[in-house]
Amino acid sequence: MKKENLWLSYQDEDKKEINRISEWYKKCLDGGKTERECTSLTVEMAKKHGYHDIKQVIEEGRKLQPGDKLYAVQMQKSVVLFQIGREPVSHGMNILGAHIDSPRIDVKQNPLYEKEGFAYFDTHYYGGIKKYQWTTIPLAIHGIVAKKDGTVVNIAIGEKEDDPVFVITDLLVHLAGEQMAKKATEVVTGENLDLLIGNCPIENTDDLEKEEKEAVKANVLELLTDMYGIEEEDFLSAELEIVPSGKARDCGFDRSMVLAYGQDDRICAFTSLFAMLEVEAPQRTLCCLLVDKEEIGSVGATGMHSRFFENTVAELLAMTEGDSQLLLRRALMKSRMLSSDVSAAFDPLYPNVFEKKNTAFLANGVTFNKYTGSRGKSGSNDACAEYIAELRNVMDEAKVTYQFAELGKVDAGGGGTIAYIMAKYGMNVIDSGVAVLNMHAPYEVSSKADIYEAVKGYKAFLQWK
Ligand code: MN
Ligand code: MN
Prior knowledge:
Elements: H1 12-31, H2 35-48, E1 52-53, H3 54-60, E2 69-74, E3 78-83, E4 93-99, E5 104-115, E6 118-126, E7 139-146, E8 152-157, H4 177-180, H5 184-187, E9 195-198, H6 215-228, E10 238-244, E11 249-251, E12 257-260, H7 263-278, E13 285-291, H8 308-318, H9 325-333, E14 336-340, E15 343-344, E16 366-369, E17 373-374, H10 385-397, E18 402-404, E19 414-415, H11 419-423, E20 428-433, E21 435-436, E22 444-447, H12 448-462
Parallel strand pairs: 1-2, 4-13, 4-14, 14-20, 15-21, 16-18
Antiparallel strand pairs: 2-3, 3-13, 5-6, 5-10, 6-9, 7-8, 7-10, 11-12, 12-22, 16-20, 17-19
């Protein structure tokens, strides 16, 4: 396979479309910094494109017609979209899947503490991160606090121009001799990744207990009560995520790339969603599945291992061909899927971990991985050669540029996706996606050309008969 930078091949109309998609994409990244925000954003966009809440349609007892569009949400953290095709659902669906959770730092359930005049949130990181990368950068807090009275308080602080931001401190280089000699995994420990949130004591300390005058913590608590109406115990039922502050930006003098937080895997989620929203009147039933918890093993009720997706397809069948276990099994088995997740892009500064022939390059198109896994393909969905051949044909006919890649050299490491979980139904699944540089870092780099090719590729896949 010849490697060729895509930018040279683009005409003016391509560049116009690249601009439209990448601006839309950056806006989505800014509005979707957590799985909850991504879910609400998806629902909002789906509604504008004629999608209806499946719960409502079930209640109405309405039968579905070709062209009908539905969405279903699982616990505000996963979402699935369907567009009913002209063919019965039991003939199989064309499914685009991706995950909307990203590596980050979560606030603990008993988070607030004061030490030597500083107030902190204690945290537990989520997903695989190089901990030292998350210190000394401006951070924002996004999430919700659920109160006992049933109300839910939405929090997003650290994004607006006049918002305060937060930070995890690191040792000054002048005193870091001992620290700098440590292994990178030990330079910053997980328990030390605590968020600095205040340094000003409360004015009236009369109410504080004599021996434990934590006046800075008390001040933060009072501010939280004023701002959000929450008390310290309410953190017990909160989901607060610490993420890099700031917007997605164009990267490079030529603006050919995007630098942003959370592109793993929202770059695949939003491009899948864009394709889903822009394809009309399909032959097969279309599905776009955006799930939570991939970064920690696809577990829980909102992760891919949950029966949420299967249950929803059962509902879909009940509203079309009938409530049949056999038809449900057929619908799943005869489906085909692009399970999309980011690929490791070749980084010329670190060539040693890549095998160039089988590595994704930025601006070289949408990526397909026959298999992922590590150490002898362990844990991988290994896509069928016959399926790949058909897929190549579909992509070539739609003039989509694509590359086949693995994640790094054999035995250099590896990674997993949601592909193997969907493959359990016996459907054809292949890993696909977009290549990024410095995956899982606070800010990741992608190519606008690849984003464009991904949307083109996903549209062609959805239209596959
Ligand atoms: Mn991922
Ligand atoms: Mn990841």
